[in-house]
Amino acid sequence: MGQKVVVAEKPSVGRDIARVLGCNQKGQGCLIGNGYTVTWAVGHLVTLMEPNELDEKYKHWSFDTLPILPENIPLKVIYSSRDQYKIVKGLINDPNTDSLICATDAGREGELIFRYIYEKAKCTKPFERLWINSMTDEAIRDGFNAIRPGTAYDGLYASAKCRSEADWLVGMNASRAFTLRYKALLSVGRVQTPTLAILVKRRLEIENFVPESFCTVNADYGDFKGTWFKEGAENDTHLPDRVSAQAIADKVKGKTAKVTQCETQHKRELPPQLYDLTTLQRDANRLLGFTADKTLKLAQSLYETHKALTYPRTDSRYLPPDMIPTVEKTLQSLPSSMQPYLADAMPGGHVTVTKRTVDASKVTDHHALIPTPKKVDLGKLSPDERQLYDLVARRLISAFYPAYEYDGTKVIMTCEEETFRSTGRVVTQEGWKAVPPLENPPKTRRKKVENDEEEAALPPLQINDTRIIQNVSIKEDATKPPSQHTDASILSAMENAGKESEDEEIVRQMKGSGIGTPATRAAIIERIIKVGYAERKGKTLLATDKGVELIRIMPDEIASAETTGKWELALDRITDGKQDSQAFMQSIRKFSTFLVDYAKTTSAQANFPEETRWGKGKSKGYKQTTIKDLSCPLCGNTVTDSSLAFSCTAYGKTCQFTLWKDCLTRGGGPEISEKLLRLLLEKKQVQGSTGLIVMGADTVAFYPNGRSTPSITKSIRYQKKTTK
Prior knowledge:
Elements: E1 3-8, H1 11-21, E2 25-27, E3 30-33, E4 36-40, E5 46-48, H2 51-54, E6 75-77, H3 82-92, E7 97-103, H4 108-120, E8 127-129, H5 137-145, E9 148-149, H6 154-182, H7 192-207, E10 213-220, E11 225-229, H8 242-252, E12 256-269, H9 277-288, H10 292-304, H11 324-332, H12 342-345, H13 383-399, E13 404-415, E14 418-429, E15 466-468, E16 471-478, E17 485-486, H14 487-495, H15 504-510, H16 521-530, E18 534-537, E19 540-543, H17 545-553, H18 556-559, H19 561-575, H20 581-601, E20 625-631, E21 638-641, E22 645-648, E23 658-660, H21 674-683, E24 685-687, E25 691-695, E26 699-704, E27 712-715
């Protein structure tokens, strides 16, 4: 009987699966035993080719070669992980291999990793799909017992492939087109551009905000206080100026106020729902100061390395009913510091099941993010991992607690025809609020309702009761601009993008979608920072001048959250088999053509920062310095150094020399440093520890050790031909 080859996404995951399957024999890049061979990728082993790898004509950026619309975008092996690809390819195509098991991460990107390897290797063996929610031994065993045919996930692969190719088509065409149009290094993307638009909108709202002064009047009755409001408009507590406020204060001070309205309502606040990735990232940013990217990496480590959390890249906040025994076991296995809270979460030793937490119809590919039943050794976690685990564990406890209940009282006092409002509350059941969100929660000010009304308990009051207004205070203030975005608020904006539209049909379509997915939103934020469109200042995220200028010249169609949300919705429908993938890709090709045509014909002018001009580098703060005693090999002018490239000071005028610092890295070569550039200009060939670099008249190539053909060849800009 032949072997089954299991392909995991990472070596650590592969080793965990191999241990459960009893694969104890070491092979090259794999583990073998009990009829299984477990191997692994190292993330992506295969990716889409670059335009210049499709055709030589795409090496030089030109409107003449746009749009780039191949019917099929060929795959290529990522050079840096080529050795592991050879191992995986050899194993899955081995004559002794009967079938495969796809054990990459259970999600869209994981599916793409396996399928691209399978397609590039031209494998035709049947395969099954392992789908697990945690990396505990028990979960792995259960996953193998419930393994499904690979064809059951064809929709997921179609969606993943469409997402990958759509990003390629939009990004390659739009970035080239707008870079050519504005002679500035511009990165335009299907998802990153509408995310940037949210940051730019907030920056402009703040810059254009005009504060309005106002006053509030507060009456002190001795045993409680009240705030003036405009009769008939209870939420309108603002007076336009000090004169108006003082007139009311003088009118009522020392006078008798009578209770004209008094009502008490019993209110309940239900416990918080369980975490999906986005809500965890928001809370971790708000409570712990973690960026979205940091939270995802910590959660992934807790999932893979420590087996302490379930699959983190989930968009569900619910559990299926069959998870209840596991949840009860998990609660009992939580660290001792949390045990005192379990009595109310598990009355009689069992949790109380409600649709707010347990609902099979609202579980997507994965259930909510919760701790695993494994007893965790907190001493083996880093301080940040421990804090994040603590946050998730306490959320699980809180979700099964009773509601927070209180009696809320509202009193209206009238004095000299002026009305004052007072509110108060008496807690009748602490409920889930008895569980602090963290072991050592940060000190935060008690949240107050507008106008600083404290919701403390009010004295017993009835209609027609009276009080003397003993004192009146006036507070001068001004309206505040919107707050700068943080990771927490931008994640919320991305998740809910388009839902503020006035078009009810669009709002309906956007339900359940937004910009990106829980698994990709952190990377999107980091990407717009990396390309210089945004920057962090403390906890805040700010659009840069370059980002503002980019959005100003973009057509609404690419900057629109609604467009991106519709695409995400379409990808979900492709996953479910409800939409044709070819029709989706045809719409993406049309859209890419539209973006190129728009860039060609737009009359919009732009003023990008000088240091981001094409050929002068791009990165945050891009400083460009002149290199002493180093002349351009094409025209003899001085060479400058920016964060991403070396270029001629006469670039864009009489010379086109540019050499990108990372031009060889995809082929396994080194980054080009100033020292290396000097050697290349002097000797034309440089032998290093990994291979040989050769500089030609208009190319630079890298030959890995032992190879007579280059692994990568990149063009350098050439001197413009002079015309008479």
